[in-house]
């Protein structure tokens, strides 16, 4: 084996020759461009005898090692090919007496060897592909909206309506532009289009088609252009998460340490689906077979699961769980899919509907092909023999391929600590005043807001219409409106195109209720309601209508008993607190929400709720 000193004795003349040629070539190049490069003095170059000094030894080692390694590489990959050195083409073979065949040394002005041969597409990777350009962020946004859901979009639209030149930046950790969530558990599942998971377009119950996205990409300006556009606009920064708020400095920090300052800020971070602890402790095999349903990606994943597996079990009997159960149950009619729904209540939506109506709803869900297991408390979950086993407290065991946990929402309040914002200990969410304000220049809207309702007290609401209403109000107040939250938002749920309801106020089955029902007609369905209103998102068609004064009898009458029959066609359910109506459910009664809103706003006692029910025209054919 050669020693470094012996090697250098043979390579030193070659290295000095290459250095001289490079200096000459560099001098010619800079003279042509009338520029002068700082040249290394000859005293600092390696021209002495090997081993005569530390600087020379290091130079010998580096140049010698480079020539040997580079020469062997060139010999093996590009034998006898021409290489460029600046504007010179040099092929410098080692002397034959060194007994190193086919080794060449090539240098450029920048000391890189570049082969002058066409790339072989079969063997060579392209070397001229530029790296992706980094995404530019605006350093400042007059209006900064954290969260990319319905509340943020409603706020952005409201801000621009009052301030046409406003520059609004929405930051969302999702990869999607703002979209509506209700179709993810409703209409999308009833689409006949096999490409619905890609298009995310759906037919409403009235047959009209629309997208889940509020606006197409062309509606928005790019984040890097937000500060430049003349008339302002709305930009969306996707796939980025705000991890810290500096409320004194009026700036936020993203997960990649980017900082963006703001004048006014809205927190509309929504929430994350809750999970059962028994599932979280069950291990990886169970976790990867569990869906927490909330986002577009969850819809796409569950849609694939429903086509690839034999059994899906939905845990939860509320709005989301019951809607998904009906949707998947109807799909199971055309496949071998088994759909199971289990929950601890006695019937579907047992926390919302009175018991008799909850039982009727459960029968409706079963008629859609769903195996409903009531009064089911999950004790443990495990993975065994290729199946997920769910053990109930009463000893029953359910085997399934996949679990959907629909057990509620946890408001996202991660920014509370860094921002110094108060989280409500009873309802969760950021605690705000009646104007949805948490600090002097910070507002909160949507699922994450625990607000003061001037009629019903402190509340937190997790529904689409509340996101629209609270987002719109927050946007108005960010532009100086100073309005209190008085509008009672509504929510709705559809169990397919034939059964649905709209509700407003405090709807809690633990409260006393009075139900008034009538015979339904063909127009008393969600499908008929959307045909009349022209939209499947029924809150969009709401108007601030004025209900007439309620007519009540002069003497109190006992509340009517609900009709005890197998079918509740349509009706009105009143929820009472201290004899005052605080909540109303319109069962297969649509486009009457302004009347319900006025009844709750008035806050009066009513001697005969049968008379109040007549305001909704439920007895009309």
What does this structure look like?
With 621 residues, the protein is an alpha/beta fold. 26% of the residues lie in helices and 23% in strands. Strand 1 and strand 2 (88-90) form a beta hairpin.
Notable features of this structure?
621 residues, alpha/beta, eight-stranded mixed beta sheet, five-stranded parallel beta sheet, 14 helices, 23% strand, FAD, protein dimerization activity, ubl conjugation
Query: How much is the average pLDDT?
Result: 80
Distance between the termini: 104 Å
DSSP E strands, number = 32
Structural class assignment: alpha/beta
Helix count, DSSP H or I runs of 4 or more residues: 14
Helicity level: 25-40%
Give the biggest beta sheet. Answer: 8 strands, mixed
Strand content bin? 15-25%
Low-pLDDT runs of 5+ residues are 26-55, 57-61, 77-95, 97-127, 539-564
Radius of gyration: 35 Å
Q: What overall geometry do the principal axes of the alpha carbons give?
A: globular
Compact description:
The protein is α/β, with parallel strands linked by helices. Helix content is about 25%, strand content about 25%.
